C-alpha cells in the first residue's frame, strides 16, 4: 500500500519563548509556566500562546526542541502524560520525573488531582 501524505490544515511552528508582552526572549526560568510565540504556516501570522505548557505538553518533537527541551525530555514527557493522564507543571516536577525514572509505576510527590 502506498504512503499517504497528510497536510495539517492549521500547521503551527514554534518560534521561541516570549515575555508577557509578547516580545521574544532567549530563556525563561520555568519552561512549563512561560508563554511562547508560534506561527500558523498557512497564514504566516505570529501569535502568543494563550496557555503555558503546564496545561498540556502538546508539541511536535521539533517544536519542543526549538523551545530547549531535549529529545529525551520530550519522550519522557509524552510517555508520562499518556500513562498518567497528568501534566508536568514545572521544572521541579520534570526534575523529579527524571530522578525517579527507575520506578516504572509512581505518582508525583504532590498530586494535584484526586486519585
Description:
- With 115 residues, this protein is an alpha+beta fold.
- Helix content is 25%, strand content 14%.
- It has three helices and three strands.
- The protein has helices at residues 61-66, 71-84, 91-99, and strands at residues 12-18, 35-40, 46-48.
Q: Report the average pLDDT across residues.
A: 82
Gyration radius, rounded:
16 Å
Strand order of the largest sheet: 1-2-3
Q: Tell me the number of helical segments per DSSP (H or I, 4 or more residues long).
A: 3
For the termini, the CA-CA separation is 44 Å
How are the SSEs placed, and which strands pair?
Layout: E1 12-18, E2 35-40, E3 46-48, H1 61-66, H2 71-84, H3 91-99
Antiparallel strand pairs: 1-2, 2-3
Amino acid at each position: 500500500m502506498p504512503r499517504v501524505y497528510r497536510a495539517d490544515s492549521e500547521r503551527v511552528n514554534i518560534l521561541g519563548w516570549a515575555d508577557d508582552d509578547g516580545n521574544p526572549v532567549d530563556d525563561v526560568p520555568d519552561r512549563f509556566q512561560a508563554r511562547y510565540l508560534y506561527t500558523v504556516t498557512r497564514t504566516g501570522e505570529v501569535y502568543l500562546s494563550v496557555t503555558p505548557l503546564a496545561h498540556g505538553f502538546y508539541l511536535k518533537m521539533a517544536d519542543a526542541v526549538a523551545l530547549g527541551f531535549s529529545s529525551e525530555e520530550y519522550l519522557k514527557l509524552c510517555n508520562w502524560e499518556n500513562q498518567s493522564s497528568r501534566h508536568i507543571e514545572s521544572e521541579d516536577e520534570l526534575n523529579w520525573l527524571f530522578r525517579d525514572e527507575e520506578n516504572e509505576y509512581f505518582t508525583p510527590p504532590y498530586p494535584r488531582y484526586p486519585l
